[in-house]
Every structure is written in structure tokens, then in C-alpha cells.
Amino acid sequence: MPTNTKTNYSIGAFAKAVGLTAPTLRYYEDQGLIEPHRHANGRRYYQEDDVNWVKFLLHLKGTGMSISDLKQYVTWRAAGDATIPQRLALLQRVKSDFLVQFNEVQHHLQILNDKINWYEEKEAGIMTAPEDFASYLKRFGHHE
Amino acid sequence: MPTNTKTNYSIGAFAKAVGLTAPTLRYYEDQGLIEPHRHANGRRYYQEDDVNWVKFLLHLKGTGMSISDLKQYVTWRAAGDATIPQRLALLQRVKSDFLVQFNEVQHHLQILNDKINWYEEKEAGIMTAPEDFASYLKRFGHHE
DNA sequence: ATATAACTTCAAGTGCACTTTAAGTCAAGG
DNA sequence: CCTTGACTTAAAGTGCACTTGAAGTTATAT
Lengths: 144, 144
What we know:
Two copies of one chain form a homodimer.
Chain A (H helix, E strand, L loop, with lengths): L10 H8 L3 H9 L6 E2 L5 E2 L2 H15 L4 H12 L5 H41 L8 H7 L5
Antiparallel strand pairs in A: 1-2
Helix pairs in contact in A: 4-5
Chain A binds a DNA duplex through helix 2.
């Protein structure tokens, strides 16, 4: 006999479990992203499934999806398997946008790294005839 | 004799050159990030150096630096070489924060990719006995 | 000469994603 | 029993990074 312990999280306990605050959870609920159960007295409760769902939402959010993107996704999800093509297309668009940003951000990091190295060499007195950052970049073929 | 063409950009031309709008440039100036020259009549003008400077600022911004971080950097820069240690420390902190975010975001992408693949397999009817996403993730050792 | 496009300042408005406040209800521990 | 903490709603406030508007001046093209 498996222990049938259905965990019923209060909003506060759930907030800790997913790393959000209770107000944020209420806000997400207002936005239609979560639909917790309610006790007879009106208090929300959440279950294990909801933990997974919110964590998944946070992954999507972390790839750049806005609340309204997420809401659209949730709406389609609630409509059933017929909307899988739409959901797939949405996620593919998100991925494509993400990859553009990802490349840009890697370039930004390269420049930041170059600048840090430039300062470190300057500090260490490695630069004999102090070279300006622009020509330092060019030496590595790093542009702009 | 080299053609001594000092380019004097108006704010509009400069905006195009750096990919910002004129109001944004005025905003950055208010924040102390740029200090354009002025014609006798009060109109701003920018030069080639300013293009490089703004592009560099945008790289730093793109690594997650806020306007106020940038302002601090600019203030130290204006104070001369004595502040190189502070600037270096700031950029190292920025890099460190960036790398944390970068790892997180890569994990988010992995989950997004997995979800897309899961939908694609479901769509294509590759999933014989439809597998839920949670166990699909586990098959790849991708957690949460 | 005159229209219109680009510039000037300063203040107010926008969008996003929360966060905080106010006023009240409810549950659990001593 | 009663205090304390957690919960409820609805509305207002916050922070960031711009963006827009208003009112006026100046430069350029016809």
C-alpha cells in the first residue's frame, strides 16, 4: 500500500516550494497562468502537479516569454490537443527569438571580457606602450 | 594630405549611426552617459569617437548593466586612471552576474527545446503510447 | 518667403512585472 | 479565549528604461 499523501500546499508553502512570493502567485493567477484549488472557506491550495507546472512556466518565462505569451500558451493548452500546432509554433517562435538574443549576448560578453583583460593588462603593466581598447579589440578580430 | 573630414553628426544622424532614437540619446545624456558637443546655437553634435563610445556602452548594457551601473562606470572613467581598480571590479562583478544568468538561461533553453521536441514527436505520431513531458525529460536526464 | 522638418527643454505618460497597502476574515497555539 | 500569523480582495504604488507631448526655435528646401 503506497502512502497516499496528497500534499496540499497553502499559498505561502507553495510560494516557498516554487521560489515565488504569495502576491506573485496571486498575480499569475489573475493573469490566468495558474488555477489553484479552493477550500470551502475560499482559501487556495496547491498540489504537486502545480509545482511542476509553475516550474515549467518559469522555464518558459526564462527564455523570454512575456506574461501575455504565457497566457496565450495556457489558453491553448486548456483547449486541448487540437491546439498543439499553435503551441508548437509559439514555442518555436520563442526559441528563434531566444537564439537571436543569445548570439547577441555572447557578443556582448566577448567585449566585456576583452575590456576586463585590457584593464588587467594595463593594471599589471603588461602593456608597454599603452594600447587603446579599439586597437586591442582589432588584434583579436573582435569588432565594434 | 589626408582628407580631414571630421564628421559632425546631428542628434538624428547620430541616432541612426548607433541604432537608438534621439529621445533615448537625450535620456542617456540626462543620465550622464554621453556628453555631446554643442554648436553655438545650442544644438548637439556628435563625432566618430562618440559612436564607438555609445556602441561600447550598449555592449556593457547588453551584459546586464543597468543605467546606474553605467553611470557609475562613466563617473569613474571621467576621474582618470586612478579608478581603474574600481572599474575593473565593477566589470568583474557584472561578468560574474552575467555568467550565473547565462547558465540559468541555457537550462531554460534546454527545457524549451525538450518541450518542442516532445510536441514534434507527439504531432508526428512517433510517441506510440503517449508519454508525458515529465517522464520524457527524465529519459534525457533533464531535471525540473 | 515660406513651409516643413529637425532641433530645443521640461514634464508627463507608457509598459511590464510585480509589490505594497488597506481592510477585513480565519485558523492554530498557548 | 485570545492573540498572532496567514490568508482574502481590490486598488494603488514601484522601478526601470524609455517614449510622448507641448510649446517653442532654427535650418533647409522650394
